[in-house]
Structure formats: structure tokens, C-alpha cells
Amino acid sequence: MLKLSRSELHREKALDLIDRHYAARIDAVLGPMAALHMLKRIVPAGELVADREAILERAKEQDAELAAIDRERRDLKAAVRAAASSNDIKALIAHL
């Protein structure tokens, strides 16, 4: 059985916290109607979806928001992976 050092255990917990934190932010951007809006996005042109254009416009906005959130998440995870100590990791995730 592989035993993780205290620093590595802290790193793994921090990476998990980051994923959970950003998953909640992504869910907030998508909203409770995400599945319905996704279906409306993929309906072929000419089908009866009265608000399809509004959905597509909002989807562009959401895509940009989601890309920014994911970039922030990946950057933070990279910083945690590169951190030299548990204290460095704590400082990186203190705002979560």
C-alpha cells in the first residue's frame, strides 16, 4: 500500500476541493434548466422552438463563462500540483 506524505495528502484534498468548488460554479452558470436548453440548442433549424435564437445567444455567453471558469480551475490545480509545501497549498486554496 502506497502511503502519501502529509504534503501529498494535503495536495490531493486540495485538488478535490478545487473540483467541487468549480463544479458548483459551473452548475450555477448553467442553471436549473441546463438540460432543456441543451436540447433546444441541438434542435435542427426550422423546428418549432420559439426561443431558439435567444437560447443560442445565451449559450454563447455561457460558453465564454464556462471557459473562463475552467481556465481558472486548471490554473489553480496546476499551481497546487507545483506547490512546494502544505503551507503553499493552503495559501492557494484559502479563498475557496
Helix share of residues? Answer: over 70%
Rounded radius of gyration (Å): 19 Å
Most strands sheet: none
Gross morphology is elongated
* Count of helix runs: 4
Topology of this protein?
Blueprint: H1 6-30, H2 34-42, H3 52-82, H4 86-93
How would you portray this structure in words?
- The protein is an all-alpha fold and 96 residues long.
- The protein is built from four helices and no strands.
- The chain has helices spanning 6-30, 34-42, 52-82, 86-93.
- Helix 1 (6-30) runs antiparallel to helix 3 (52-82) and helix 1 packs parallel to helix 4 (86-93).
- It is elongated, with a radius of gyration of 19 Å.
- The model has no long low-confidence stretch (mean pLDDT 88).
